[in-house]
């Protein structure tokens, strides 16, 4: 498993770097759309289908219409999600907000049809709305960052912080980990690993800043690095929480050694809005 992780990284990382550096903003947005769709497929597999089926088995009279209602929610997300990414590419916050509102209205409309035969459709509405915010909206922050001044540098900056923090937490936890961080959600994660991840994020951030973004103020930068380190780990644990609820180990198998797309971008999803906030409102 460890060997597969590094093989996957060695193949995928150069392609991602090349796409970000040479692909332009439109190809980057298309790439994020593809990631969005794949992540939504995995999310619905976790949050709607498997998590719900365990409850519905105990309520056989409500099984009627379950698959169709789940498909309706997924179809809506596969349309609205890429549209949110497109709106981010156009730098249109009004359209992003409008699409989120439209998605909420559509979810309510879909639920009306299935409530009689499947009252748990209300829970599906909540999970559907969560998925749209969790994946397309958070991913759209990457497109907004890429479109802004020094966008390429900041995308590499963010990816470096998240990747180094995740790697640092993994290896420090393996070597020094003794105290469980959140055993009910992820038994393998330790407090020592979390501290190691924060330290790695801080160190990588200072090095990257001194090499490519020397104009950034030191104090807010340290706060930024630590914030990314913390929310990245929260994002990792949140996805683990979803999988634990659905009794799943990985969100998918598309990335050998890493699991699914959602397994790979869980920390990045939470980190992207924070990076966008710091870039747009703190580092002025």
What does this protein look like?
The chain has helices at 2-22, 24-56, 66-89, 93-114, 121-147, 151-176, 191-212, 218-246, 261-282, and strands spanning 180-182, 186-190. The chain has 284 residues and is mainly α. It folds into two domains: 24-147, no CATH class; 150-284, no CATH class. It has a two-stranded antiparallel ribbon. α1 (2-22) crosses α2 (24-56). The protein starts with a helix and ends with a helix.
How many domain modules?
A: 2
- Give a short account of the largest sheet: 2 strands, antiparallel
Integer-rounded radius of gyration: 20 Å
The helical percent reads: over 70%
User: Uncertain spans, ≥5 residues at pLDDT below 50?
Assistant: 56-65
Brief description of this entry?
This protein has 284 residues and is mainly alpha-helical. The chain has 9 helices and 2 strands; from the N terminus they run H-H-H-H-H-H-E-E-H-H-H.
Q: What descriptors fit this protein?
A:
two-stranded antiparallel ribbon; mainly alpha; 284 residues; 2 domains; 2 strands; globular
Describe the secondary structure blueprint for this structure.
Blueprint: H1 2-22, H2 24-56, H3 66-89, H4 93-114, H5 121-147, H6 151-176, E1 180-182, E2 186-190, H7 191-212, H8 218-246, H9 261-282
Antiparallel strand pairs: 1-2
């Amino acid at each position: 498993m460890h060997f597969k992780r590094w093989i996957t990284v060695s193949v995928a990382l150069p392609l991602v770097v090349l796409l970000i550096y040479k692909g332009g903003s439109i190809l980057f947005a298309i790439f994020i759309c593809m990631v969005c769709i794949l992540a939504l497929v995995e999310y619905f597999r976790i949050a709607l289908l498997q998590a719900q089926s365990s409850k519905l088995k105990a309520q056989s009279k409500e099984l009627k219409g379950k698959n169709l209602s789940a498909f309706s929610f997924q179809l809506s997300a596969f349309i609205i999600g890429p549209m949110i990414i497109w709106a981010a590419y156009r730098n249109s916050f009004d359209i992003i907000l409008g699409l989120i509102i439209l998605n909420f209205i559509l979810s309510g409309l879909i639920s009306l049809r299935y409530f009689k035969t499947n009252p748990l459709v209300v829970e599906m509405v909540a999970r559907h709305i969560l998925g749209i915010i969790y994946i397309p909206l958070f991913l759209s922050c990457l497109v907004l960052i890429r479109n802004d001044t020094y966008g390429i540098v900041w995308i590499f900056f963010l990816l470096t912080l998240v990747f180094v923090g995740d790697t640092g937490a993994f290896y420090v936890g393996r070597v020094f980990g003794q105290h469980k961080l959140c055993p009910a959600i992820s038994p393998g994660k330790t407090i020592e690993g979390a501290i190691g991840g924060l330290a790695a994020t801080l160190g990588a951030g200072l090095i990257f800043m001194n090499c490519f973004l020397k104009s950034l103020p030191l104090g807010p930068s340290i706060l930024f690095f630590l914030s990314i380190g913390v929310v990245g780990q929260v994002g990792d644990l949140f996805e683990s929480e979803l999988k634990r609820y659905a009794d799943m180990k990985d969100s998918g198998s598309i990335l050998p050694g890493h699991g699914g797309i959602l397994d790979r971008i869980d920390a990045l999803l939470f980190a992207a809005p924070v990076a966008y906030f710091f870039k747009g409102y703190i580092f002025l």
